[in-house]
Write a structure and sequence with these properties.
This protein is α/β, with parallel strands linked by helices and about 450 residues long. The protein is built from 11 helices and 21 strands. The structure holds NADPH dihydro-nicotinamide-adenine-dinucleotide phosphate (NDP).
Length: about 450
C-alpha cells in the first residue's frame, strides 16, 4: 500500500487500540496511533486496574474482621489512609502508562498526542498534521453518561471517583450495573456508609436471577444500604455535604454521589457523522464481522462498537481485526459465545454461559445444579459470608451451558470453568473430574443431584 503514509492509523491508545497497533506492526504494517488523553485507555486509567486495586484495599476490611477467629490480635481498630491508597494507585498507573508507551515504541509504532479528526475515508488530521492511511481504526472507547436531574452536576463519574480529594465517609452510587455494585462494595469495604440507589426492583439486570438475589443478600449483610425501585430526584449541596432526595421521598445526606448510569461512545469531534458513518440505534458505531464501518476503510472495535464492554473482548477483537486485514483475510469471524465475566462486588460474581432464565427459553428442558454453603474459612472467622455455585445443563445433550458463582475469588475460579463451558463439555465430564480438596471450587465437580429441572 505504497500511496499512503501508513497502512493503519489508529485513533485511541486504549486496550484495543494498543493491541491492534502492536499486532499489526508485528505483521509488517506501518502503524501510527493518536491519543489525546492517557495511554491504556479506560481499563488502565479509570477502569479495571484502579478498580481492582481499590477492591483489594476494601477486602482488607474483611480480612481484619476475620483475623481474630484465627488467633490474630490487632493492636487497635485499623484505619484507612485514603491518600496513601489513592497516590499509590496513581504511581502504579503511571508505571503502566510508561510500559504502554515503551511497547508502542519497541513495536515501531508512531504515537501522536492529540485528538484525531477523520476528514475522509483515508485521511486524518491530528496535531496540525494531515496524514493518509490505507485503513483508519476507531478505538476511542466510551465515556460515562450522567442523566439530567436537578443537581446532577454534583455527581462524579468513574472518571473522577478514584481521585477524590477527601475520603467520602458517606457514599452513594446511582445505578445497578457493574460499576454501581462494584463501587458500593468497594466504598463499603473501605469504611464508608455506602448506599446504592437503583431504579429497578433488583440490580444486575441480565445476570442469573438467583445470582442477583444472592448478591443482594450478601451485599446487604456486609452493610451496603440498598434502595431499589427509586431514583434520584434532586441533589442539593449542603454544608460540605450533599442532600440527596429520592423519588420515593427519602432523603440521604452524603459526601459523594457516583453516577454509574452507563457509558456512551466517545465520538465527539471525530468527524464520523460528517462522513455519514452509520450508527446503531444506541449511538455506537455499526460494524460488520470484519470490523468495517459503512465506510469500509474505516474500522472500529471495542466499546465504541457496542459489543460486550470488556477489555478482553477489545483485545480479542484487535487480534482478529489485524488477522483479517493484514495477515489472513479469510480468517473466521470472532466467536462471541460463552465470554466469561466477573463483577468485583463483594463477594465477587463469576459467570459464563447462559442464566437459568435464558436456558429455560433457549433449551426447554434443563437441569439446574446449585449449592450454597459457608466456606470453610468462615467456620473460624465468624463471617456470615456464603458462597453460591450453580451449573445449568441442557437436559437433552447433557452439555453444561451456564456456570455461575458468587463467592470469594469467583473471577479467578470461573476462568477455568469457562474453558470447559466453551469446549462444550457435558455434566458427565464435570462428574468424571476428581475434585481438589479442601477447596470451594470442588463443589463444581461434586454436585450430583439436580436442585430443579
Ligand atoms: P451498565 O450499563 O452496566 O449499567 C448502567 C446502570 O445505570 C443500569 O443499572 C441502568 O438501569 C442504570 N441507569 C441507566 N440510565 C439511568 C437513569 N436515567 N437513571 C437511573 N439509572 C439509570 O453501566 P455501568 O456504568 O455500570 O458500566 C458500563 C460497562 O462497563 C458495563 O456494561 C460493563 O460492560 C463494563 N464494566 C465491566 C466491568 C467488569 O468487567 N468487571 C466493571 C465495570 C464496568 P437499568 O438496568 O434499569 O437499565
Amino acid at each position: 500500500m505504497p500511496d499512503f503514509d501508513y497502512d493503519l492509523f489508529i485513533i485511541g491508545a486504549g486496550s484495543g487500540g494498543v493491541r491492534a497497533a502492536r499486532t499489526a506492526a508485528a505483521a509488517g504494517a506501518r502503524v501510527a496511533v493518536a491519543e489525546d488523553r492517557y495511554l491504556g485507555g479506560t481499563c488502565v486509567n479509570v477502569g479495571c486496574v484502579p478498580k481492582k486495586l481499590y477492591s483489594y484495599a476494601a477486602h482488607f476490611h474483611d480480612a481484619f474482621e476475620d483475623a481474630s477467629g484465627f488467633g490474630w490480635q490487632l493492636p487497635g481498630a485499623p484505619t484507612l489512609d485514603w491518600a496513601t491508597l489513592r497516590d499509590n494507585k496513581s504511581g502504579e498507573i503511571k508505571r503502566l502508562n510508561d510500559i504502554y508507551g515503551r511497547l508502542l515504541d519497541t513495536a515501531g509504532v508512531r504515537l501522536i498526542n492529540g485528538r484525531a479528526r477523520v476528514v475522509d475515508a483515508h485521511h486524518v488530521e491530528v496535531a496540525g498534521e494531515r496524514i493518509s492511511a490505507a485503513k483508519i481504526l476507531v478505538a476511542v472507547g466510551g465515556w460515562p453518561w450522567v442523566p439530567d436531574f436537578p443537581g446532577s452536576e454534583h455527581t462524579v463519574t468513574s472518571n473522577e471517583v478514584f481521585d477524590l480529594e477527601q475520603f467520602p465517609k458517606r457514599f452513594l452510587v446511582l445505578g445497578g450495573g457493574y460499576i454501581a455494585v462494584e463501587f458500593a462494595s468497594i466504598f463499603n469495604g473501605l469504611g464508608s456508609d455506602a448506599h446504592l440507589v437503583y431504579r429497578g426492583e433488583l440490580f444486575l439486570r441480565g445476570f442469573d436471577r438467583e445470582v442477583r438475589e444472592f448478591t443482594r443478600d450478601q451485599m446487604a449483610t456486609k452493610g451496603v444500604n440498598l434502595h431499589f425501585e427509586t431514583n434520584i430526584e434532586r441533589i442539593e449541596p449542603g454544608d460540605g455535604s450533599l442532600m440527596v432526595t429520592l423519588t420515593n421521598g427519602e432523603t440521604l445526606e452524603v459526601d459523594a454521589v457516583l453516577s454509574a448510569t452507563g457509558r456512551k461512545p466517545h465520538l465527539l469531534g471525530l468527524g464520523l457523522s460528517e462522513l455519514g458513518v452509520e450508527l446503531n440505534t444506541d449511538g455506537t458505531l455499526k460494524v460488520n464481522e470484519r470490523f468495517e464501518t459503512s465506510v469500509p476503510s474505516i474500522l472500529a472495535l471495542g466499546d465504541v462498537t457496542g459489543g460486550p464492554e470488556l477489555t478482553p473482548v477489545a483485545l480479542a477483537e484487535a487480534m482478529h481485526l489485524v488477522q483479517q486485514h493484514f495477515s489472513d483475510t479469510s480468517a473466521r469471524p470472532l466467536d462471541y459465545q460463552n465470554i466469561a465475566t466477573a463483577v468485583f462486588c463483594h463477594p465477587n460474581i463469576g459467570t459464563v454461559g447462559v442464566s437459568e432464565e435464558q436456558a429455560r427459553e433457549k433449551y426447554g428442558a434443563i437441569r439446574v445444579f446449585r449449592t450454597d454453603f459457608r466456606p470453610m474459612k468462615h467456620t473460624l472467622s465468624g463471617s456470615q459470608e456464603r458462597c453460591l455455585m450453580k451449573l445449568i445443563v441442557d437436559d437433552e445433550s447433557d452439555v453444561v451451558v451456564g456456570a455461575h458463582m458468587v463467592g470469594e475469588e469467583a473471577g479467578e475460579l470461573i476462568q477455568g470453568i469457562a474453558i470447559a463451558v466453551r469446549a462444550g463439555l457435558t455434566k458427565a465430564d464435570f462428574d468424571a473430574t476428581v475434585g481438589i480438596h479442601p477447596t470451594g471450587a470442588e463443589e463444581f465437580v461434586t454436585m450430583r443431584t439436580p436442585s430443579r429441572t
